[in-house]
C-alpha cells in the first residue's frame, strides 16, 4: 500500500470517528421542522385606516424585519412569507412560548428620547411626542375618548430628540444591583446629536418612551455620546424582546393578528417511522445491487455510501440543519447522485479492462477519465442548489432553502466519497499491481 493511500485512510478514519461522535452527541440535536414536530402558525394583517392601502415594498420590508426577529429567537427553519396584498404568514416550529413570539412579531417598538425639561414623568404615563419635522403622534391616552374630552384634557406633548432608528445595536445586560437593563449603542451621526443635547441639558430630565408610554425618566448627570442603558423594571423576557425589536427595527406598518393556531406535526410519528423504513429499504436495495453487479468495486462503493450517509448526518447536527420533508428529499436526491458517480467510475473501469489494460492501470484510468463527467454534473447541481437557496432566503421560502441546503451538502460529500473514499478503498484492495486479481477478474465485474 502506498503512503498516499495510507494518508487518505487515516483521514477517512478520523472523519468517520468524528461523524460517529456527532451522531451520538446529544449536545448537537437534530433540528426538526414544522412538518415533523409541529409549532405555532400566526397570520398577520396590515392594520390600516379604511381607504389606505399598503404597497408591495412595505410588505416585503415587514417580512424581512419579522424574519430577522424570529431568527434571533433561535427558531429552527421559520417560515415568513407574504400572502396576498396585506397579509404575512409566520410558521414557527417547536416554539415554546407563543405569547413571547406573538409580541415580538407584532410589536412596532417605537423608541423615543424625549425632552421633558425639568419634569420627571412617571413610568406608564402615555404622552404625545412631536418630531421636529412631523405632527403630534397619537397616544393610547386618547383611546375611547371623544374629541371634546381630548381637547379639554389632552395628553402632555413633548419634543422628540431621537428615535430608535438612531441605534446601532441593543443588548440585554444585568446591572450592579441585578436589575435588567437594555444597553444600546448609537450610530455616529446620532451620537453627535445626542452628545450635544445631553451636554447642554445636564441636570434636566430625558424621558425614554416606548410606544408612547414612559418607561424611564432619568436625570442627565453627564454628557452621553455613543452608548447608554434603558431602565424600566424589565423582566429578562421583556428586555430580550425590546432589544430584538430595537436591533431589527420598527415595522413600517402596524399589524393585527388575524389568527393563531398551534399545529401538530403534519407527518406524524407513524409517517416519520414509515419514511425512515422506506429510506432504509431503498438504500439497502441499492447497496445489494452494487455488491451483486460490481462485486469488489461495488463492495467498496457500498462502504463509501455508508460513510457518505454518516458524514451527512454528522454535518446536519454540526451545522444545525433543520430536517423537513423537503430537506430529507434533498438528501435522497444527493444519494442518487453519489450512486451515479460510482457507476460512471466502474463502467469506465470495465471498459479499460476489456481493452487489455493491467488491473491497477484500469482502476486508475476509471477514476481519472470519469472525473470530468462527475465534476461537471456536480458543479451544475451545486449552481442549481445555490439558486434555489438564494430564492428561498430572499422570498421567505424556507422549505426550498432547506431542500437546497441538504442537496448542496450531499452533492459535496458525494464527490468526496466517490473520488477519495471509494478510490482509496479500491487501490488498497487491488494492491501494488493487482496480481492477485489476474485470475479473479470476475471480482471486478468485468
Describe, in plain words, how this protein is organized in 3D:
The chain has 446 residues and is α+β, with helices and mostly antiparallel strands. It has 3 domains: 3-29 and 267-444, Multidrug efflux transporter AcrB transmembrane domain (Multidrug efflux transporter AcrB transmembrane fold, Up-down Bundle), CATH 1.20.1640.10; 39-106, Alpha-Beta Plaits (2-Layer Sandwich), CATH 3.30.70.3400; 111-239, Gyrase A, domain 2. 52% of the residues lie in helices and 17% in strands. The chain has helices at residues 3-24, 34-37, 56-72, 98-106, 147-152, 188-200, 236-247, 268-294, 296-319, 325-354, 359-395, 398-430; strands at 31-32, 39-46, 79-83, 87-93, 111-115, 128-130, 157-163, 167-174, 180-186, 206-210, 213-216, 227-230, 255-263, 322-323. A 5-stranded mixed β-sheet has the order 6-7-5-10-11. Strands 3-4-2-13 form a 4-stranded antiparallel β-sheet. The protein has a 3-stranded antiparallel β-sheet with strand order 8-9-12. α1 runs antiparallel to α12, α8 (268-294) packs antiparallel against α9 (296-319) and α10 runs parallel beside α12. The mean pLDDT is 79.
Query: What shape does the CA trace take?
Result: elongated
Q: What is the helical fraction, as a range of percent?
A: 40-55%
Question: Which regions have little confidence, pLDDT < 50, spanning 5+ residues?
Answer: none
Count of distinct strands: 14
List keywords for this structure.
4-stranded antiparallel β-sheet; Alpha-Beta Plaits; 446 residues; Gyrase A, domain 2; 3 domains; 52% helix; 14 strands; alpha+beta; Multidrug efflux transporter AcrB transmembrane fold
Amino acid at each position: 500500500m502506498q503512503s498516499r493511500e495510507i494518508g487518505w485512510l487515516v483521514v477517512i478514519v478520523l472523519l468517520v470517528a468524528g461523524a460517529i461522535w456527532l451522531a451520538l452527541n446529544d449536545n448537537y440535536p437534530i433540528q426538526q421542522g414544522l412538518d415533523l414536530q409541529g409549532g405555532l402558525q400566526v397570520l398577520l394583517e396590515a392594520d390600516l385606516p379604511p381607504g389606505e392601502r399598503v404597497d408591495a415594498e412595505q410588505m416585503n420590508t415587514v417580512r424581512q424585519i419579522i424574519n430577522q426577529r424570529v431568527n434571533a429567537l433561535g427558531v429552527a427553519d421559520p417560515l415568513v412569507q407574504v400572502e396576498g396584498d396585506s397579509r404575512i404568514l409566520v410558521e414557527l416550529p417547536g416554539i415554546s412560548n407563543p405569547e413571547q413570539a406573538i409580541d415580538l412579531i407584532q410589536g412596532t417598538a417605537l423608541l423615543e428620547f424625549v425632552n421633558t425639561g425639568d419634569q420627571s414623568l412617571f413610568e406608564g404615563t402615555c404622552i404625545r411626542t412631536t418630531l421636529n419635522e412631523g405632527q403630534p403622534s397619537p397616544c393610547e391616552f386618547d383611546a375611547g375618548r371623544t374629541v371634546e374630552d381630548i381637547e379639554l384634557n389632552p395628553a402632555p406633548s413633548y419634543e422628540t430628540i431621537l428615535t430608535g432608528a438612531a441605534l446601532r445595536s441593543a443588548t440585554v445586560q444585568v446591572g450592579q444591583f441585578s436589575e435588567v437593563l437594555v444597553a444600546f449603542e448609537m450610530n455616529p451621526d446620532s451620537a453627535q446629536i445626542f452628545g450635544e443635547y445631553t451636554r447642554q441639558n445636564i441636570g434636566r430630565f430625558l424621558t425614554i418612551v416606548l410606544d408612547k408610554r414612559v418607561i424611564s425618566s432619568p436625570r442627565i448627570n453627564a454628557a452621553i455620546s455613543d452608548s447608554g442603558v434603558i431602565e424600566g423594571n424589565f423582566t429578562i423576557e421583556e428586555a430580550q424582546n425590546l432589544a430584538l425589536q430595537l436591533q431589527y427595527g420598527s415595522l413600517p406598518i402596524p399589524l393585527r393578528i388575524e389568527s393563531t393556531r398551534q399545529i401538530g406535526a403534519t407527518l406524524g410519528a407513524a409517517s416519520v417511522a414509515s419514511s425512515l423504513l422506506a429510506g432504509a429499504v431503498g438504500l439497502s436495495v441499492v447497496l445489494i445491487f452494487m455488491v451483486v453487479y460490481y462485486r469488489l468495486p461495488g463492495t467498496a462503493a457500498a462502504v463509501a455510501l455508508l460513510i457518505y450517509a454518516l458524514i451527512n448526518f454528522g454535518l446536519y447536527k454540526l451545522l444545525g440543519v433543520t430536517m423537513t420533508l423537503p430537506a430529507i428529499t434533498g438528501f435522497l436526491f444527493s444519494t442518487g447522485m453519489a450512486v451515479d458517480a460510482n457507476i460512471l467510475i466502474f463502467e469506465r473501469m470495465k471498459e479499460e479492462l476489456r481493452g487489455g489494460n493491467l488491473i491497477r492501470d484500469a482502476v486508475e484510468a476509471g477514476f481519472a477519465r470519469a472525473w470530468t463527467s462527475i465534476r461537471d454534473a456536480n458543479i451544475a447541481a451545486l449552481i442549481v442548489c445555490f439558486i434555489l437557496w438564494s430564492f428561498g432566503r430572499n422570498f421567505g421560502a424556507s422549505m426550498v432553502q432547506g431542500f437546497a441546503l441538504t442537496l448542496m451538502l450531499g452533492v459535496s460529500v458525494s464527490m468526496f466519497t466517490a473520488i477519495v473514499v471509494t478510490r482509496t478503498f479500491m487501490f488498497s484492495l487491488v494492491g501494488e499491481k493487482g496480481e492477485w486479481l489476474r485470475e479473479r477478474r470476475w471480482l471486478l465485474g468485468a
